[in-house]
Specification:
The protein is mainly beta. The chain is 6% helix and 35% strand. The longest helix has 19 residues.
C-alpha cells in the first residue's frame, strides 16, 4: 500500500531506539501534518529512512513525505550521514483538517457515467497506478523548491488539498492535488528535470501529464487544454508540458497540480516554498507543523473534481 521501494533495504530494521536521540543539542523530532513533508538538514545526509524504506537524500538533507491518510501518532525516521553513521529521529503526525464542498456539474456524463466510460476510466486508472508504482530512478533529479508549474501557480493562502467534494448530490471524491484558477492557454511547464511517464487524455483527469523526477518524486498536471510532450520524453526544469485547459471532469479552465513522493499523496505546495520552512528535525529552533492555510470553497468557475480514475 502506497510504499514505493526505490533503494535496497540495507539493514534498515530496526532503525530504532525507544526515544529520540540528541543531535547537536537538539532533539531529533518534529511534528508534521498528514499530507505534509518534514526535513532533517545540517547532518550531511546521504540516505534517509521511514516506513521500512531507505532512499537517497536530496542536497544533503532528508525529506520525509507523509501520506494524506497516514496514521496519526509517532513514527520513527532515520538518517545516514556521509560517514555511514545512523541517526534516529521521530515524527509526530498530526491530523490535517480538510474542507468539504458541493459542486454542480452541467456535464452529466460525469455524474451518470455509462458502462463504456466506467470501463475506460478503470483502464486509465490502471495506467496511472502503473506509472506511479513503476520503477523510478533512485537518484533525485531535482532540488527544492520546485519551479512553479505555471505563472500564478505557487504557494498561496488557500488550499483545496484533501478537500472532500460532492458532485450533484451523488458523486463523492477526495482531492489529492491543488487547483489554481488560471485561464486557458497559459503555459504549463515541468517543475524539475524528469521523464514523462504518462501523457494521455483521460476520462476524468482530461489531458494529463505525469513526470518522474527521480528520488521517488512524481508530479502531475491534469485538465490541460493541449499536450506538448509524449510518454517517454526527457524534460528539463521549465520545459513545456502543455497549456491550461478544462478537459475531463472540470467545470472550467484551471490547473490541477499534484505530487506523490515515495508514493505518498502530499500537498504539492510543500515543494514549491522555501524548504527551510518545512517542519524541521534536529534543529535548535524547532519548527512547528505548517498550519493549514486558509481553505476556500470551490466555485463553479474554479472547481475541479478529483480524478476518480486514479487519484481519489
Amino acid at each position: 500500500m502506497r510504499k514505493l521501494i526505490i533503494a535496497p533495504l540495507l539493514a534498515l530494521a530496526p532503525f530504532a531506539a525507544p526515544h529520540a536521540q540528541e543531535v547537536d543539542g537538539a532533539k531529533s523530532e518534529a511534528t508534521v501534518l498528514q499530507g505534509g513533508v518534514a526535513r532533517w538538514s545540517g547532518a550531511d545526509a546521504r540516505e534517509c529512512g521511514i516506513h521500512g524504506r531507505r532512499y537517497a537524500a536530496v542536497d544533503a538533507a532528508c525529506y520525509y513525505p507523509i501520506d494524506m491518510r497516514e496514521k496519526t501518532g509517532v513514527h520513527e525516521v532515520a538518517l545516514w550521514n556521509a560517514a555511514g553513521e545512523r541517526r534516529i529521529g521521530a515524527l509526530t503526525v498530526a491530523k490535517r483538517e480538510c474542507t468539504e464542498t458541493e459542486i454542480t456539474l452541467d456535464r452529466l456524463e460525469y455524474i451518470d457515467v455509462s458502462a463504456e466510460d466506467r470501463a475506460r476510466a478503470a483502464t486509465e486508472r490502471e495506467a496511472v497506478l502503473k506509472a506511479v508504482k513503476g520503477v523510478t530512478n533512485i537518484h533525485p533529479r531535482f532540488s527544492l523548491p520546485l519551479a512553479p508549474p505555471a505563472a500564478g501557480a505557487g504557494v498561496q493562502d488557500r488550499s483545496d488539498f484533501c478537500e472532500r467534494r460532492l458532485y450533484n448530490d451523488k458523486i463523492r471524491s477526495v482531492h489529492t492535488g491543488l487547483d489554481y484558477p488560471i485561464g486557458p492557454g497559459v503555459a504549463v511547464d515541468s517543475p524539475a528535470d524528469g521523464t514523462v511517464v504518462l501523457a494521455a487524455d483521460h476520462f476524468y483527469a482530461g489531458r494529463s501529464v505525469m513526470v518522474d523526477h527521480g528520488g521517488g518524486l512524481m508530479t502531475m498536471v491534469f485538465h490541460l487544454g493541449e499536450l506538448a510532450v509524449e510518454e517517454g520524453a526527457e524534460v528539463r526544469r521549465g520545459d513545456r508540458l502543455g497549456v491550461v485547459g478544462g478537459s475531463g471532469r472540470a467545470t472550467g479552465a484551471h490547473l490541477h497540480f499534484g505530487a506523490r513522493w515515495h508514493n505518498q499523496r502530499i500537498d504539492a505546495a510543500a515543494l514549491l516554498g522555501d524548504p527551510g520552512r518545512l517542519p524541521g528535525i534536529g534543529e535548535a529552533s524547532q519548527q512547528q507543523p505548517a498550519a493549514d492555510v486558509k481553505a476556500v470553497k470551490a466555485s463553479a468557475a474554479t472547481a475541479s473534481p478529483e480524478d476518480a480514475g486514479g487519484e481519489d
